[in-house]
Amino acid sequence: MRRMSWRVRRLAAGTITVALVAACSTSPLTSPQNPVLTQPEANAVAEVVATDAASLAGGVTLDAATGMPFAVAPMPGAPAMATSSASCMPTRTPSPPTNSDGDPVPDSVRIDFTGCTFTGDAHTVTLSGSIDIVDPTPAITDRAFRTRSNAFTRTVTNAATGTTRSVVENGVRSVVPTADQVQLADTMTTEYTFASGTTASHVRKWLATFTADQAGSIRVGSRLPSGDWTIAGASTYTSGTNSYSLSVTTSEPLHYNPSCTTEPRFDSGKLSAVVTKGTTSTTVTIEFTACGQYTVTRS
Length: 299
Prior knowledge:
Blueprint: E1 3-6, E2 22-25, H1 39-59, E3 91-93, E4 108-112, E5 116-120, E6 123-134, E7 145-158, E8 163-177, E9 181-193, E10 199-212, E11 227-239, E12 242-256, E13 266-277, E14 280-290, E15 293-298
Antiparallel strand pairs: 1-2, 3-4, 4-6, 5-6, 6-7, 7-8, 8-9, 9-10, 10-11, 11-12, 12-13, 13-14, 14-15
């Protein structure tokens, strides 16, 4: 078993710092017989799955008023982004959008992020693509909304190391929030580029539930409060010529902590993926031990 820890080396107030550190332990613990994945492959699967789990927080709290998502680059090891430091304001079409029922969600608006950048401490974050926000019940005053990501891309470049990671998202999220809980249907495709330059795709259908620690603390158009995520669903993970079926569950709820300064903003919980190829399966367990830190094991 190899333990992978993600830590941010430096953070500067009001700026964006993206640093990725992998600390590895090579303790010769028991590994599965004839595993579907090697440990490095399991680590890669975990990086993508953890990224997609972290992105759920942004998916349920997109701010239709400004167009800026509250979670800009939820990649493992990346610090929380200060969206106020962006060098652009996303374009809203139409502007202002129609809101027939007067609830927090406009009838339909496209938010285009072309040209949006963040810089700080020799790192640059670039956004591109667009997100559509739609009120599925434009004649009923409620909290429900739906988003469609259209090649919504987050690219992080480290000038000091010359490495770049990126995430491209396409697909639909349907969100039904109350003041206490959020129900989320996540039907998305992620195209992930690792710092090494290798790529992977993750096509998933997840159902997720967020339950706030404090009842009544969830507000549409505001940042997500602390609480627990549970996730269940199926997906397909492909890298190179290898393709795997994944069954993903939270064996322990993922506790979301908005005060975390490092992504993922989970300070506890376990996410398990049963990875199957042909008739052979391996379970990859991602255990979150602190803000931005997790271990990856195979069984």
